[in-house]
Amino acid sequence: MPRMKSARRVMLLAMMGLTMVFASCDAVKKILNTDLAEEDYSMGELYVDEYVKEVPYVPTPSAEAAAAGKVNALGLERMPDDNEQLYDAIEGWIGTPYLYGGTTKSGVDCSGFVGNIFNEVYDKRLHRVANDMQQDCQLISRSELREGDLVFFVNSKGHVSHVGIYLRDDLFVHSSTSRGVIISRLGDKYWSAHFYKGGRVKV
Active-site residue 162, yes or no? Predict the structure, then answer.
């Protein structure tokens, strides 16, 4: 009998030990999952574009320009120093839906769009996310912007979270969270309030 009681005690202790081990594993998993969730959240705060509902800018060239064929691929009046390759490349992306992490014409985010255009038009490889793209540029003021410069915007937390390509006349093209790839005005209320810096990509 004493031996049986001893065996039962050993089994009971073993079961208790296993329970504690599994409980500890679950606890560890919960801690890890919480840490990962917090990391994902902070990464999102830094890199994910804010949702901005807006009406895209629709170019309205003059009748004279249209009749003379002086309208580029985006519907803007053609200027002598336009980079036609840039406008042609952008035209192929207009209307592409927004997709966080996307890099194709099935869905693209802001930095994915900018990266594709710069690779195609300028044979330049830029950093993947908007915040890091600043490293590829000389930062400039809004008044210094010219065709092909980058435009950076900060979100409500003050982090650079969005990027587009400046065209001219206060217009820029970007992958908008609500409309996909569109043309917008820097002077619009949201973009004007959140504009951070222009960026001239280093040669």
Answer: yes
